[in-house]
Here is the input.
Amino acid sequence: MCRRIPLVRAKDIVRARVFIAVIAFAATSTSGSRLPRLFIPVAITSYPAIHLSPRPNNTTVDTIVLHHTANDSVWATTKWFQNPTSRVSAHFTVGKDGSIAQHVSTEMTAWHAGVSQDGKGRRAVNRYSIGIELVNRGDGSDPWTPAQLKATILLIGALLRDFPIRQIVSHEFVARPVGRKNDPINFPWNTLTHFGVPLHFGEPKPN
Ligand SMILES: [Zn+2]
Here is the structure.
């Protein structure tokens, strides 16, 4: 005997449509100029790191630090962040194919800048920054891909909606002693000027 079981009942289709309509309304309703939280411009995969700490109390996250990974993949970066001996992490890694991994919640301090100081003399940059690793071998000849730059811009755009970011800096600019780091090497900073946020890269000028 063969009994046909309908895969989807009409009642369920109606329910699904109502649900989608509610989501669509939530995604388009907004107050003020900020885009709604439900608007997700980029797909982010979670690959947790093990090296992180709480933000100090009353910290305002106002800085984004860009890095290069000095390797050739998101996976290699993830493995390093999950290695108990590495004692490093970053909030995000952007792959050459435009994929984005998140390793640490932005509510927490990631360990990406090491001994550091920003242009205003504030030390311990990790505490008030979000660290973004960009997959690049760091040899000065490895190219930045269009997909990677596009994903980086989308990610930074999303972060600018949620945090009062007042500067985007290179690791090279904030690392101490000066000259300790050179990343992200040859990054095309002109792709970020449209955000209107101050950009600081290269070696800092001596005071
Ligand atoms: Zn770095």
In short: The pocket of zinc ion is lined by residues 67, 171, 181, 183 (CB under 6 Å). The chain has a mean pLDDT of 86. The chain has four helices and nine strands.
